[in-house]
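DM from R.C. (forwarded with permission)

"hey, sorry to bug you on a friday — could you get me a structure for this? deadline for the figure draft is monday and I only need the backbone to look sensible"
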Amino acid sequence: MTAAPLLEVRNLRKWYDIKHGFAGRRAHVKAVDDVSFAIRPREVLGLAGESGSGKTTIGRAVLRLIEPTAGEIRFDGTDVVRLGRRELRQFRRKAQIVFQDPFSSLDPRMTIEEIVSEPYQVQGMGLSRTQRRDRVIDLLDTVALSAHYLERRPHELSGGQRQRVGIARALAVQPSFLVADEPVSALDVSIQAQVVNLLDELKERFGLAMLFISHDIAVMEHLSDRIAVVYLGKVMEIGPTEEIVHRPKHPYTEALLSAVPDPDPALKRKRIVLQGDVPNPVDPPSGCVFRTRCPYALPACAEAVPPLRSVGSGHAKACIRDDIL
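My reply, with the result:
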């Protein structure tokens, strides 16, 4: 029997009001437009796409770090959008985030002990200083650091060590859900693998569900159970990781995968270079938003927004063509 979703996102929209053009007319930046997905307990959903595709906005809207314009976000049966201030704080004991930049997300004036223990004070957990310190030491040990770092400050740590501190802080209140927002993009390649492996170990150890955001499908392939591919604020394709990586059904997914280096030099992957730039989210193309860069576009692609439709077990795509992949 399939477990009920821990997180359900339905028709999520985040538009920003701006003044556009010389006349200063009101317009909307459609950062996220009609996005839906679900994540089950202990499942990792990878969210892939180019910079500016809306991935981070989705992650922050799910936690209500930014307010969604429209849509429904349900966590463990609770409507997150309708939570008041007190209930929202309680929700954040269950749902935490690891930010992309491991330096700017840590207060440079605070010691590592103060940073990791701060969630206990914010949540009013009533722990003594000794209890907080003991828990911080345990958390640092969990992320492969030690008590030696307690009195250090962020500028004294490497990028990988700072990100481990960020992960420890996110785990402090024992959440069941974690948004990992490009957690390795600011790190050296050798350190990226260590952090991804750490997240994988923590997922198994603590039974975490996770929204893992990255522009690099190769990075998320190791960690994710399913992958959703996002372009200009819309989901282009979603399905099991094996299907997305080895049998993509959308041209945008195919193009993203073609940019991933293959470790086997005998296998030469055909590189697909998309023409043009990502369209202006203030005035996106009619119909399929990807059609202006799609090598398989037809005139019909401009007529209507293609809905996500099933192309296999748990696999769906937003494309009208079935004769290309």
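R.C.: lifesaver. DSSP finds nine helices and twelve strands in the chain.
me: no worries. The radius of gyration is 21 Å.
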